[in-house]
Amino acid sequence: MQDEKKPCIAVDYDGVVADTSQLKADWIRENLGMSVSPGICDRTRCVERIGTRQYNRMAKVVYGREYSLRAQPVAGLKSAIPILAKSFRLVILSARDDSNILWVTEWLQKHGLYQHFSGVISTQQRQKLETASELGAAALFDDDIRHLRGPGLTSVRRFHFDRDLPEDVRTEKQLVHVKSWHVFLQLLGKGKEVFDG
Ligand SMILES: [Mg+2]
Question: If you measure from the C-alpha of residue 124 to the centroid of ligand 1, how many angstroms do you get, rounded to a whole number?
């Protein structure tokens, strides 16, 4: 059981925890004959490349149990999570629906990470920032910019995971783009200045 007194960090699942981005890129290459970087396989950027219809077709496959459990951990995740869990209460916020979110728990168990998280929550019908705010989360870490943009709720610090970023960190108004888990960990290690920033 996670310590309720620790500050909470909300973390996206697909493309941030499990590298389903690579599986999406593979599916797109095999089924559509297109080369798309895994770094832009979040819904917002991927739909711009392949369209909503093909994205939904692909997501139905990749978010199913077989593909979900095949996904590798995102680089740096396995070393970052146990360190973060010492100081923070970690919660997964995923836009997966109620059925496909089941594989998130199974995947975390498979990779020995489940005990570091205090919850796995589907936000399919809701805004992630709103849910993060209700949880009292200090931060939301997500690879899809649509979940990080929105009015108000400034108590939740917004971190955009962008593995294709040319630099380690890029700061925008209300938003910090981060290249890797390693960099995210470094930013959180600064603690107070990041959250008071
Ligand atoms: Mg994602």
Answer: 12
* Distance in Å, CA 13 to ligand 1 centroid: 6
Instruction: Give residue 89's domain range.
Output: 8-18+73-196
CB burial class (10 A; 0-12, 13-18, 19+) of residue 10?
buried
Query: Measured in angstroms, how far is the CA atom of residue 12 from the centroid of ligand 1?
Result: 6
Question: What is the distance in A from the centroid of ligand 1 to the CA of 96?
Answer: 9
What pLDDT does 185 receive? 93
Q: 192: Cβ–Cβ under 8 A, 6 or more apart, which residues?
A: none
Q: Does 153 share its domain with 140?
A: yes
Say yes or no: 163 and 190 in one domain.
Answer: yes
pLDDT tens-digit series, residues 64-112: 999 999 999 999 999 999 999 999 999 999 999 989 999 999 999 999 9
